[in-house]
Design a protein that fits this description.
Layout (H helix, E strand, L loop, with lengths): L1 H8 L3 H21 L7 E2 L5 E2 L3 E2 L1 E4 L6 E2 L7 E5 H6 L16 E6 L2 E9 L17 E5 L2 E2 L13 E8 L13 E7 L7 E9 L4 E8 L6 E12 L16 E15 L2 E14 L5 E2 L30 E17 L2 E18 L13 E4 L1 E20 L2 E19 L2 E5 L6 E3 L12 E18 L8 E21 L5 E2 L2 E2 L2 E21 L2 E12 L2 E2 L8 E2 L2 E14 L4 E13 L2 E11 L5 E13 L3 E13 L5 E17 L15 E3 L7 E12 L4 E11 L21 E14 L6 E9 L7 E7 L3 E6 L4 E9 L1
Length: 789
């Protein structure tokens, strides 16, 4: 199905809209012909409910609990069982494309920071900086995660991951122009329960996980989660005593206390702490460029199991911890008041020698650029929500304050030296981070304020089938900071030596209008207009630290959410078109300035500068999610996303070679956005005598995308990454009665990239270095045992 749909829709999203209308009409006819029974509320997941078809999925995308099918926005949900079936241990594991509209990737070779795009919006360039933000917001239990760093840490006891597609500026605010990833963890139950999992696998992997609920005591319920997981490197480092490439070690602890003295009030305190150590991904040389290569630097067009050159390599270490306090008061059945207070800290080191085989050869020259960096962040946030309901009006209002302090620095010493003919090399040193001269450093403070309101009105028309939602959010962002080291010294600009200052602020209003119609009990249609933005900032790889403005998205979306055939089939479709303005694009610039006497100084050093692209970009796309439960125990899922992003050709506004400004527009590509992406899965559950047999298989496809936003040189087109198709599987025996109390044992075997498919998910070209990139992970597998009581 996925291949045929992709073929039919390849020409344009308009063809997809026509198809969606036809499918909606068929769904409505089927719904009228059948009489589906009501579905009971259940945790998200693909499982079918015997005798009642598909289970109801509850989401919190509108700051209140609602049925997925009644919520008039495009949402994809992965429940706890979905995550276990796919062996998802961190957000990075979603990089295989389990949700086609969501693209997840590591920042170049570094697994310590993630790139996230939804509907082609999120990252155009390096958001791995203090004064730059992501375009997709990540929330855990209502708390916004301010940085790309730390998102790859191990996930705790997750109840669901909701992917909200399209701008979420009204309810979620800044930096959700592409959408939001809303993660919800399981809460204390107040009843004693223990779930313990242990597993081992190839590449020296192991996993241990414990989730403990304690009995309620004087209205206090306590839950403790602990997790540890690790695997050895996937690519061997030939240098003895040094870490292999693409290794990972994660561990964390989470404790939560829920105090519920009455049925109308609760206080929920949560603390988490995590440790994440990883080595970089190995960057492979595919074709040679014009720069010289040593005889040892052989090309590696296939996925490598061993690096060509051994190099000093140590793990990058991220540490996070945070507190959250959620107060929930229900003064009446029609009104809820909620307060979410949070404080978090993050430190992240970077030791990246993954590009060692890209090094330029010079006799007796130094090479192996070791990219070192250190990143510190702390954030405080306070949000107040007021959620209410009147006979024909549902409303919500709220306010948010977010404060963040971030500092980073970077160095890039060489670690190896070639011999005279490039047939060998020796170690210069293994750098101590604290002993290497800092190349650049910056810090920034961000204060963000927001106030929002949204209401849904149901007029007394057509048996209450029409619902009109309107809302808006006012936001104010202020960033103050400085770039205080450039090239190991205080920057000198136009003859003045002083830290380069950032002091900028921006205000916005993001509106939303949504009209939904209940065509029947199980067919819901909607049309929505909404806007969102990514905050302005400054590029710490520039010389002047000049601010750039926010980029914005204004999107129109139509959709249908349907269930039919006695609640055995669920089909959700959305089509959208959007304008994309002030896009933040990075450009290369010549280091050019004036001296103290007004004379022009030009050298060959380049910097990276950011400017807002001229003109207006366009987005359009189609998404379809189909779930079928044809017989008891069998669930089939298929999802497809067509995404088209057009960014206007843009003139590089910064000086180039010899100080010349080039007024020829350059082509701009959106990155990490395949035109076609699809995912499908099969889940089968068979009750047996004394246990349950469970099987899962999923396949995930994407058509390739760009990872660089501009062409490498005039007349040379930027290459796309390879097409990819990755299959994951899990087979288990569950609910084996241990004969004591209600204790149950489950055993399973799992595999990611079951068929060991290989493709380059990062691929780019340089006239000097040739084609190079990073391959996807090889096949991994393991066995697990879980005891629950």
């Amino acid at each position: 199905m996925n291949i045929s749909v992709a073929y039919l829709l390849r020409s344009s999203a308009l063809a997809g809209i026509a198809l969606s209308a036809a499918l909606v009409s068929s769904a409505a006819f089927a719904a009228d012909a059948a009489s589906p029974a009501a579905a009971d509320a259940a945790s998200p997941g693909p499982d079918a409910s015997p005798d009642r078809g598909l289970t109801e999925i509850i989401v919190t995308a509108q700051k209140r609990a609602t049925n997925l099918q009644d919520t008039p926005i495009a949402i994809s949900v992965l429940g706890s069982e979905d995550l276990a079936n796919r062996h998802v241990q961190s957000l990075l594991d979603l990089a295989d494309g389990g949700i086609p509209s969501l693209r997840v990737a590591p920042f170049f070779s570094r697994k310590s920071a993630l790139i996230m795009n939804i509907r082609g919006i999120g990252v155009m360039s390096d958001s791995n900086q203090p004064a730059r933000d992501m375009g997709v917001g990540v929330y855990i239990d209502g708390v916004y995660m301010g940085r790309a760093q730390g998102l790859g840490t191990a996930l705790y006891d997750i109840e669901s991951i909701e992917v909200l597609k399209g701008p979420q500026g009204t309810l979620f605010g800044r930096n959700t122009e592409g959408g939001a990833v809303n993660i919800t963890t399981r809460k204390p139950t107040g009843k004693f329960g223990l779930s313990a999992t242990a597993g081992i696998g190839n590449y020296g992997s192991y996993k241990g996980e414990i989730h403990l609920n304690l009995p309620e005591f004087h209205n206090f319920s306590v839950k403790i989660d602990a997790i540890t997981t690790q695997h050895d490197g996937f690519v061997k480092n030939p240098l003895a005593g040094q870490r292999d490439f693409n290794a990972s070690e994660q561990r964390g602890l989470h404790a939560e206390v829920l105090w519920a003295p009455s049925s109308t009030f609760s206080a929920d305190y949560s603390f988490d702490i995590s440790y994440d150590a990883s080595t970089p991904l190995y960057v492979q040389s595919i074709t040679a460029g014009s720069y010289g290569r040593a005889p040892l630097q052989v090309l590696q067009p296939e996925r490598a199991s061993e690096a060509v050159i051994g190099t000093p390599q140590q793990p990058s270490i991220g540490k996070t911890h945070g507190h959250r306090l959620t107060l929930d008061w229900n003064p009446s059945t029609e009104l809820e008041v909620k307060s979410i207070t949070s404080y978090r800290e993050l430190t992240q080191s970077q030791f990246d020698n993954g590009s060692v085989n890209l090094s330029v050869f010079a006799p007796n020259g130094n090479f192996a650029r070791y990219s070192l960096a250190h990143f510190d962040q702390d954030q405080f946030s306070q949000e107040i929500q007021l959620v209410g309901e009147l006979p024909r009006l549902k409303f919500m209002a709220g306010a948010l304050y977010f404060h963040e302090r971030v500092e980073d620095n970077a160095q890039s010493p060489n670690t190896l030296t070639w011999n005279a003919d490039g047939t060998g090399y020796s170690i210069i040193s293994i750098p101590d981070y604290t002993a290497v001269t800092i190349d650049r450093a910056s810090h920034v403070r961000t204060d963000s304020y927001g106030a929002f309101g949204q209401a849904t009105y149901t007029p007394a028309l057509l048996d209450d089938r029409i619902h009109l939602t309107a809302g808006a959010r006012w936001s104010r962002d202020e960033k103050k900071g400085e770039l205080f080291i450039v090239n190991g010294a205080t920057p000198t600009v136009n003859g003045v030596t002083a830290p380069q200052q950032l002091d900028a602020g921006w205000s916005r209003v993001d509106p939303l209008i949504n009209l939904s119609i209940d065509a029947s009990k199980d067919v819901h249609l909607y049309g929505k207009w909404s806007t969102g933005y990514r905050s302005g900032g400054a590029n710490s790889r520039s010389l002047t630290y000049a601010p750039f403005n926010p980029e914005t998205v204004s999107m129109f979306e139509i959709g249908a959410k349907t269930q039919f055939l006695d609640n055995k089939v669920r089909l959700n479709i959305a089509a959208y078109t959007a304008s994309y303005k002030n896009i933040q694009v990075d450009f290369s610039a010549l280091f050019q300035q004036m001296d103290a006497n007004g004379n022009l100084i030009t050298n060959n050093r380049t910097t990276t500068e950011t400017a807002n692209a001229q003109g207006k970009g366009r987005l359009k796309g189609l998404e379809a999610d189909l779930t079928i439960a044809p017989v008891d125990g069998l669930t089939l899922n298929a999802s497809y996303a067509y995404t088209s992003v057009r960014i206007p050709d843009t003139v590089n506004p910064f000086p180039q070679a010899n100080g010349v400004y080039v007024d020829t527009p350059v082509k701009i590509y959106q990155v990490y956005t395949p035109a076609h992406a699809a995912s499908g899965s099969i889940d089968y559950e068979i009750p047996m005598n004394g246990f349950t047999l469970r099987a899962h298989l999923d396949g995930n496809y994407d058509s390739g995308s760009y990872v660089s936003s501009t062409d490498p040189a005039a007349g040379i087109k930027q290459p796309k990454t390879d097409k990819g198709f990755v299959v994951n599987g899990r087979l288990g025996i569950a609910d084996i009665d241990l004969g004591r109390s209600d204790a149950k044992l489950s055993l399973s075997v799992w595999s990611r990239n079951l068929f060991n498919e290989q493709h380059m998910f990062y691929k780019t070209y340089s006239p000097y270095l040739g084609t190079y990139g990073i391959f996807n992970d090889p096949r991994t597998w393991g066995v697990e045992a879980n005891v629950k009581f």
